[in-house]
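hey m, so remember when u said the tokens were messed up on ur end? i reran from scratch. heres the input so u can diff it against urs
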Amino acid sequence: MIPLHFSSPQFIFLFTIILAVLAFGVKSVKLRNVILLGFSLLFYFSFSGYWVVLLAGLALADFVLVQQMVKANDKQRDYLLWLSFLLNIGTLLIFKYTWFFTDTVLSFQGASAPLWLKWVAPIGLSFYIFKNFSYTLDVHREEIIQPEKNFLTYLLYVSWFPNVLAGPISRATELLPQFNTLQKPNTTEAGEGYFLITVGILQKYWLADALGMNWVDRVFDNPGLFSGMEHLFAAYGWLFQLYLDFGGYSLLVMGISLLLGIRLSPNFDRPLRSLSLSTFWKRWHISMSQWFRDYVFTPLNFNWRSWGRWGAGLSVLLTFILSGLWHGPAWTYILWGGLHGIWLAGEILWRTPIQSFFSFLPKQLFNCFAWFLTFHVVVFTALIFRTTDITSAMYMMESMFSRFQGHLFFTWIETYRWPLTCLGVGALFEFLPGKIFSWSQQQFIRIGWMGQAIVIALLLIWVFQETQGPSVPFQYLEY
């Protein structure tokens, strides 16, 4: 079956039918959920094939465990939680990390793991397992008092097609109440949904793809052919490509979901404006950051609370190492997570002395310095995240100092005018006042649903006519 990419004619056709059926032909909440569940499973099947059985099987297992958990005593509840942990995290480890861990151990003996252990993980596995396991954790913590009694509704939560492949990682407390009181979006909500889709299309298919295909990929795929200056600007371009790609994807799925009456929480909040790394992680990939905060950092920090700030620093370091590993079985991801963890631990331990040291600076000047430093920490760690191995990352960063070749600057600008223009537009999306975004949304809503649909259709035609080459897959579909 052809994958139902959001931009594909097949998806647009089927989604339009679903919208029409739900808007004009269905009044029962249960029937609506059945239709949405059927489409969600079909959507996931189009990408993963029969791995949809694994998704449904894990959902059924946790659904049954939770039903038993509400009847059990405290000791039995703990056993059921551990069983859920083994099922979910064990599945994740088997599919994503078997070869990596085996190869790492065997490398000390001068051997390597057999390639047959390098299984291809089902798409979206990390995301729907986190949704699944967080539900069990919330019931165990009694943050959910009345668990969902209808398995089909729960399976809809796990398999909800807008965010099953690459997030955001929605919580059961966010989605299940909406599925049980499903309402048609009003005119304002529908207009907001179409606006989010429009901005998402622009960010992903116009800006991010242009940065990737015409600039960033060329440098990262063959770093030896480029100067240190080009490595530096490719690092800037990659950060904006990743942000515009995943940010655009998040807006797109929020808009699609909102058209069906389900509101997803924002996943980004202008993170590249942050003055500290801790603020950055409150604004970047918010759903993942909050998941690791609530289910990894908070328990660790509670257990190590007697160590004070050192316990908090160690907790955040371990949390980000695990976050790096969650992104994939590669040392570059682990190093990326470890560096973020070290920096954040430093913020916890030494923020006050550092602020006191720089207290002689005017506030605005200090904020500029803090932004510049934070931005470049994110840039250079993102470079490590993007490269295939640590050696390549070190080569590119070393060349920025030893082989910069700044005399090529104006030639470089002439060569890459189009991706630079896209970078500038992407920066405008990030740094213009938020009031402009709100005003644009209000004006878009005023033109009515017919005008909104025409704008999106023309935009899709224009984007796919003007962009060069096929669309680049969403970056986070790999994780």
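this time it looks ok to me. The chain has two domains: 9-184, 188-478. if urs says something different then somethings off w ur setup not the seq
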